[in-house]
Amino acid sequence: MFKNTINIRVRIIFLVVVLMMILVIGKVFYIEVISYDKLNTLANDLWSRNLPISADRGEIYDRNGKVIATNATTTSLVFIPNQIKDKEKIAKDISDILNVDYEKMLAHVTKKIAIERVHPEGRQLSFEVAEKISKLNYDGVYLLKESKRYYPYNNLLSHVLGYVGIDNQGLSGLELYYDKYLTGVNGAIKYYSDGKGHRLKLEEKYEPPQSGMNITLTIDLDIQKSIEKELDNVMSMYSPEDALIIAMNPKTGEILGLANRPDFDPNNYKNYSIEAINRNLAIWKTYEPGSTFKILTLSAAIEENKVNLFEDRYYDSGSIQVENARIKCWKHGGHGSENFLEVVENSCNPGFVVLGQRLGTNTLYNYVRNYGYGNKTGIDLNGEGSGILFKLDKMGPVETATTSFGQGISVTPIQQARAVSAAINGGELLKPYIVKVISEPETNTTILENKKQVVKQVISSKTSELVRFALESVVANGTGHNAYIENYRVGGKTGTAQKVENGRYLSGNYIVSFIGFMPANDPEIIVYVAVNNPKGITQYGGTVSAPIAKNVFKSAIEVLNIKPDETGMPKQYEWYETEYLKLPDVLGLDKKEARKILKDFKVEYSGSGDTVIYMSPSANQYIKKDGTVKLLLSN
């Protein structure tokens, strides 16, 4: 009995020992095999330290691959406090070099922390300052590569690009809107230290930073430069409160150029007010559009068969009575009897009131909504406004009348550019966009691509064709004549909107605008110009804004390779304007007959003989009256 009891106890003890050995072996196996990576990482974290290396933000290019936002390499200062022996001396020497308070620097070097980034005093140091610190060769003082955003064209495209903060984070514009794509992944230099923070002589590990994605815009840098130049000129000449220009491809919704004044330099954004750097007027500002809105009323009236531009007539006496309101024409005494094409050419308010009345309140309001007014366009920029419309149940006869010629409602410039694009591009309301492609920097693989997006069909292509014809006539024969370009087809509409303050219209204070497009028969570019309260000139869209648009168009002719077109409407010249005449074709004629036909021009001959075999400029182009024509003669 006793012997059996001993055997049982021995077996139990043996079994317990075996189980304990199995547990120990299992634990060792778990630690050495299954949890090795995890525990090794945790161990490394206890005695490894990281010196951060900032990643470059993705670069931003124009549509032709020209860099408009890139990165500059700078240096940042980092302390490892446990490695610094003489803290007072280092604090004194560094504070002298950085020209900052000694006590602040002493607080950095004595902080109970593994790694102390000296912020903001030690961020984005110049080469000269970094060189002085490097020569000190102090333990625990490190200079690390840091990436700083750099805009090579300074103020150009500033409100579109936006700016970044000291930590390379996007704070406005595209830098903010696409920040998650532009931001890279920071790298590090890993080293090992003991429990007291002293650096160990073990191999360092370098983890390279990963740059952010690159962005290609729809912007054309050459068109943008032209826009910026024109805005600088208008600010210098007329000292307006502000001004803006938008250039867009009306067929696709691509923004070709966009700028505001006042602007700012994103390289030095701290020198400007928050309002100046964050208010992108072209998408944020709301105001009454004035007569440029008449394009939408015109298109609606044509689409609804409420007007025949050539046969319907209207007598403009200078005003029209709507209930208890008398609405005046800009021309004292009115334009008299005119067909509705002339109503458009003359920008006659009473005539457009009649079109609004023919449409009726509900129909006019529906077209306003269909053209996108009252809603954001969805452009890929922050801070877009929505505009302000009458509520339908608040629109009486007077509100309907004023809306028909662009008064009493508020729109944003980008809404206006998009709506008029729909009126002239065949009737498609598009979503405007400014980023074309986002791509991976190493392989150039496309990550995201924006394309043409049709929101809705607003009018028919037939109506749109007639609208283009009418607006080309406005430039050739009407209020938009200052935008006319000889040998090219330009269409457009002027606008002069009285400003409102505290619910009352201001006297002698207008936003003058022009929206135009070319070629008029097949538009490739639409340009919207708005100038707020220009000084020292008669405040009309035709006198201030139309010439600005004309200059932008001239630049676009070369950039977009727009060909001359002799089929456009001839211009009706004012007495004070330089007159251009179409050059007759005299090829094959004899010298005397050619001279008789070219009586309005100066003629220079070369060669010998009596027959014209070559002429410069070529026939059917418009050239200045009294301009020189060169003829090559031969037998």
Q: What's the CATH H-level homologous superfamily of the largest domain?
A: DD-peptidase/beta-lactamase superfamily
* Strand percent estimate: 15-25%
**Unreliable segments (pLDDT under 50, ≥5 consecutive)?**
none
Averaging pLDDT over every residue, what do you get? 88
Q: And the CATH topology of the largest domain?
A: Beta-lactamase
Distance, first to last CA:
147 Å
Count of the domains: 4
Number of helices: 20
Gyration radius, rounded: 36 Å
What is the helix fraction of residues, given as a range?
25-40%
The CATH architecture of the largest domain can be given as 3-Layer(aba) Sandwich
Explained architecture:
The structure is a single chain. The chain has about 625 residues and is α+β, with helices and mostly antiparallel strands. The chain folds into four domains: about 1-35; about 50-215, Alpha-Beta Complex (Penicillin-binding protein 2a (Domain 2)); about 220-265 and about 275-445 and about 460-560, 3-Layer(aba) Sandwich (Beta-lactamase); about 580-635, 2-Layer Sandwich (Trypsin Inhibitor V, Chain A), CATH 3.30.10. About 35% of the residues lie in helices and about 25% in strands. The strands form eight sheets. Strands 2, 3, 4, 5, 8, 16 and 17 form a seven-stranded mixed β-sheet that branches. The chain has a five-stranded antiparallel β-sheet with strand order 10-9-21-20-19, with helices on both faces. Strand 16 (about 435-440) and strand 17 (about 445-450) form a beta hairpin. Helix 3 (about 85-100) packs across helix 4, helix 12 (about 295-305) packs across helix 14 (about 350-360) and helix 14 packs across helix 16. About 40% of the residues are buried.
